[in-house]
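Database export, one record per block. Field names are fixed; values are copied verbatim from the stored entry.
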Amino acid sequence: MKKIIQLVIIIAVIAVIGSFGFSVYKKIQKFDQIMLLNRNSKILIKQKFINIYSVSKQKEIEIDLDNKNIFIHFWASWCKPCVEEFNDLDALIYKTNQVKFYFISEEAVEKVNEFQKFMGLRNIKFYTIDKANNPFKINNYPTTFHNINDSLYNRIVGKSDWNKFFNNIVYD
């Protein structure tokens, strides 16, 4: 009889823990779906131009945001996912001339210069922008805006599989 009571108690504890675990799992799953929706979204950019500083040319340039096939990638030198993406992105730039790429940091020009020399990337051109003047208001890195094959800009927050992206979007 004592063993049966112990067995019933164990089964009851397992049932309670299991239902609690399932509830937590459902909440995490719902949170992941919300994050996925927020990670990839379309936005309308009201500003026609953005001024950025070319690190290699050492002068300010203007991006016309009304142009098509623009890829604007905000990154930071301290951001591990940003750094991990650069080799793939460098190779992709070499493969396509259909897209205009802008790799923009809100860090100081000197810091971006050091980073560029350290990484040894051949095809990526780096730009900087003052955080206060950045119309995109970046809160997370990396964050990418592009209007490839679209009239609106798409926002992608976080590390992405850019090889897969360009194979699906650009090279089709």
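Remark 1: Residues 2-39 form the longest helix (38 residues).
Remark 2: The beta strands are 40-43, 49-54, 59-64, 70-75, 100-105, 126-128, 143-146, 153-157.
End of record.
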